[in-house]
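Justification of computing resources. Each target in the renewal requires a structure prediction run like the one illustrated here; the chain below, 634 residues long, is used simply to show the kind of job we budget for.
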Amino acid sequence: MSKLLRNLYRIVYGSLCRTTALALGLFLALYPLSGHTQLSPAVTGQFEPLPLPAKPPAATPELPKTGESAPSATPANAEPSVAPESPPEGCRPVSDRAMAVDLKAATAQAQKQSLSVQMALYSEAVSLWNRAVTVCDGRAKDRAQRNLNDNLRVKEQLSEQQDAGPKCEGAQKDATSLQDLARQSLTDRRFAEASVLFRKAEDAWDNASELCTGSQQELAEKRRDQSAVDGHNAEFCAPVYERAREQTQKFRNLPSTLSREEKQEQSQIAETLWREAMAQCKGAVVDAARNQTQALARERGTPWVARNLPPPTVANTSKKAAPSTGAGAGPGSAIAAAAPGAAKATSGKEPSGPGALASLTSTLSSLGASVASLANAPVAAAPVAAAGVSVTPFKTGVAQVQPPEFVSGTTQFSGKFVRDADGTSFSGTGKITWVNGDVYDGTLIQGQRQGKGLFIWANGQRYEGDWVQDTPSGKGKLQFANGNRFDGDVVAGIPQGKGRMQYASGDDYNGQFNVGVPDGRGTYTWKNGQTFDGEWKAERPNGQGILKFANGNVFEGAVVNGVPNGQGKLTFATGELYTGAVVLGEPEGQGSFIWPNGDQYVGLWKAGKKNGQGVFTWKSGERWEGVYENDVQK
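Resulting C-alpha cells:
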C-alpha cells in the first residue's frame, strides 16, 4: 500500500512541476522582464502607468560565442510564444503626419495638379485626422476634428469634380488660367488688356457651367458673374480709381506750409474723384471708394463740394470748378452726408473735447445751384408734368404769375411764385422739391433764398432760419441726420458766434463757435455729468476754467487740451483741498494740501506725491520740516 502511494505521489508531483514550468515559461514569453518593471498597486498604492514609447526599441540579438551553436528560437518542448502588440501611436506623431500630408495636398491643389493626385492626398489626410480624433484630447482633439471636417469638404468637392468628368475639369482649368492672366494685367495696370481677358474668362466660365453639374456648375456660374464685374471694373472703374488714388497721395504729400484753403481744395478734388469711382465701379470696389470718401470728409471737417482737376494746359488760368447749375440740380445734391462727430465722455481727470465739430456743419450756399438757374432750361425740354402740375410757357420780357403747382426742368414748385421778366428766375413764397428728394420751403427773391426758410435734405438733415442771398446766415437751427442739433448764429451755413450744440449721445455745448467748432467762452456738459466752463480753443478746453468731474472733484484753474495744467485749486469730493502747481492733472511743483481733519502739508510735489523740501503741520500744532521722497520722510 505504501509503495502504491509513493508511486502516485511521484506521478502527481511530476505533473505539477511540469505544469508550473510550462505556465512560468508562457508567462515569461508573453511578458518579458526587459526594461522597467512596474510594481503592483497593492505595493505602491495609487499610481499612473509609465508612458510607453511611441516605437519600442528593437532588441539586439546576442551573437553566440565562438564554438557555440546559436540557440534555437523555439525550444522543441515549448509552446510558441505570442509577440507583444506595438503600443498605439500617440496624438503628436499622428497630428504631425496629418499636417505634413495637409501641406502636400494644399500644394497640389494650388499647383492645379490632377484630380487623382489631389484626391489621393486628401484621402490620406482624412484618414490621419480621423485617427488623431480618436487618440487626442482637449484642444488637440478639437483641432483634429476641425481639420477633418475641412478636408472632408474639400474631398467631397474633388469627388464631384471627378464625377463631372474630364471635360468639366478641362473647362475649369482654361477659365482659371484666363482669369489669372486678367488679374495679372490688372495688377500691371494694363486696364484695356485686363478688360478683354476678363471677358474671355467670363465666356470660359460660362462654357464650364454648361459642361459641369451640381456644385461645380454653381461655382462656374459664380465665377462667371465675378469675371463680368471684374471686366467692367477693369474698363470703366480702374482708370478713375487710379486717378483718385494718385490725387489722394498727392494730397497726403502736400507741404505743411500750404494754406488751409489750398489743402481743402486738393481734398475736395480727391473726394470728387472717389465719388466718380463709386459711380463707375461695381462690387466690393465701391466699398473701398466709399471708405476713402468718408476718410477725406472726416479729415477735412467741411462738407463736400464738387471740384474737378484743372485741365492739363501749360498756362492754367481756369477758375475753380463750380457746382452744377443745371435745372435738375438741387441745393443739397452735392452733399453726401453731414457726419457730425459726437463727443464721448471720458472718465478720470482728462475730459475729452466735443469732437470735430467742423464736420457738423454744412455750407449750404455752396451745395448746389441757385434757384435762379431753374428757369434756364427751355420749356420744350421739360419733362411731362405729374398729374395736377402744369407746365407753362414763358413770354419774354413779361413777369408771369405761375400756377399753384408747376415744374421747371425736373424741379417742382408749389405756392405763390412768379417768373421774373428776364425769364431766368422765380420770386415768391412756397415749396420747392428737387428730383433727388431735397426740399426748400420759404421765400425766393429773384431765384435766391432770402428771409426765412426751411431746407430739408433727402437724408433727413435740415436747416431752418435766416437766409441772405441764397446763403443760410443769421439765426438758425441745424438738425443733422444722426440726431445732433445746433441752435444759434450761422454764417454761410456754419455755426459762427454764440450757439448751442446738443449731441445725440447726450452731451451738450453752449457757448462761442468759430468756423463750426467751440472757440471762446463756453460750457460743455458730458452725458455722465462732467462739465467744463471756461475758455475753448481748437475744439478743446484751453485756458482758465472750472472743470467738474463726475465723481464730485472740482478743479479751478489753467487747463490745456482738457487736462488741468498750471496753477489751480483742486477740491476733492472727500473734503481734501490742494492749491498750487499742477502738471497733467497731478500736483507737481510748489503747493499746499489740507486734509479734512486739519492736517496740512506745504512744500514740493512730484507726480502727485510729496517730493522735496516741505513742512507737515498736524492739527495739534506739531510740525515736521524736512525732505520727502515719494511721500516718505527722509
